[in-house]
Amino acid sequence: DVAAEWAAEAERIAPTRLLSVAGIDRDRPKVDVALHAARTGVRILVAGEQYDVLVTLALAREYGAAAAELQCFVVDAAPDHPTALPVYCAHCRWTHRMIGEPGGEVTCPGCGRRLEIHPHHSALRGSYLASDARARELA
């Protein structure tokens, strides 16, 4: 609904394209084609689950989109409700889709370590940083 409203409003101003995908992991090629065709001054509006929004915004930045060209709306974020997040493991150096929240702990599917998800979010990577949850104990 949010994307349809944005598209209708934008269409009154300039030609508009609405791209609907099932999720960035599944439909990445469609998103790549759309971002490759984008030109300076385009407005990119991303609506969806937090994981998809964060990863898509990072991808748009990779293609050269500026902050002023990006807008988003997350539909699954709620206080006290863990959702899927893109989490970058500092140990295996991979971004994984994980259910959790900043300050929480998860097990990395890449290296098997127990990770603490830090509140630090990298807009460039589109993910939260996570590191070994026991690192403070070992220091």
Spatial shape:
elongated
Radius of gyration, whole Å: 17 Å
Strand order of the largest sheet: 4-3-7-6-5
Q: Give the topology string: H per helix, E per strand.
A: HHEHEEEEEEH
From the N-terminal CA to the C-terminal CA, the straight-line distance is: 50 Å
Mean pLDDT: 91
Structural class: alpha/beta
Multimeric organization: single chain
Report the major sheet. Answer: 5 strands, mixed
How many helical elements? 4
SSE blueprint and pairings:
Elements: H1 2-11, H2 24-37, E1 44-48, H3 50-62, E2 70-74, E3 83-89, E4 94-100, E5 105-107, E6 114-122, E7 127-132, H4 135-138
Parallel strand pairs: 1-2, 3-7
Antiparallel strand pairs: 3-4, 5-6, 6-7
Helix pairs in contact: 2-3
Structure description:
Helices cover 29% and strands 30% of the residues. It is α/β, with parallel strands linked by helices and 139 residues long. A hairpin with a 4-residue loop joins strand 6 and strand 7. The longest helix has 14 residues.
